[in-house]
Design goal:
mainly alpha; single chain; globular
Length: about 140
């Protein structure tokens, strides 16, 4: 593992992209449906410690973006072969093939709905695709 081949600016921007995707995904696109399937309301959301939630989410998503960057560009040889397209593809495969289905397995045991699985798994599939696109294109 060679951290010198990792573009930390790309990792940071990839991390921040998850917030933009999340704002769209859990806001205008699927916000109402998500609130319904998780049993929350707008009023209940306002009671949360948003600094703690956003702060921890940033740390966790930074770790995820760095991990993806290590898979994609963790060696000089790997870094020279990654493009925007392959980064997006591998990001999608990570988000859909691993994260979506890991959430789906947990959700089955938790008796969550397919709507819940689709909303949350879909978010991670899109988020990882965009993270991979950013990391793959920014050398």
């Amino acid at each position: 593992m060679d951290l010198s081949s990792i573009n930390m600016w790309a990792v940071l921007v990839a991390t921040l992209s998850t917030f933009m995707v999340g704002w769209l995904w859990y806001g205008p696109l699927f916000g109402s449906a998500w609130l319904e399937v998780v049993g929350l309301s707008e009023e209940k959301l306002k009671e949360a410690n948003m600094a703690k939630i956003f702060g921890l989410a940033f740390v966790f998503e930074l770790i995820m973006a760095l991990n993806l960057a290590l898979f994609l560009t963790g060696s000089p040889e790997a870094a020279s072969n990654i493009t925007a397209g392959t980064g997006a593809l591998y990001g999608f495969l990570t988000g859909f093939g691993w994260i979506f289905f890991a959430l789906a397995v947990n959700s089955l045991y938790e008796r969550r709905s397919w709507k819940y699985i689709g909303i949350n798994g879909g978010y991670w599939s899109v988020a990882f695709t965009i993270m991979g696109l950013i990391i793959g294109s920014w050398k």
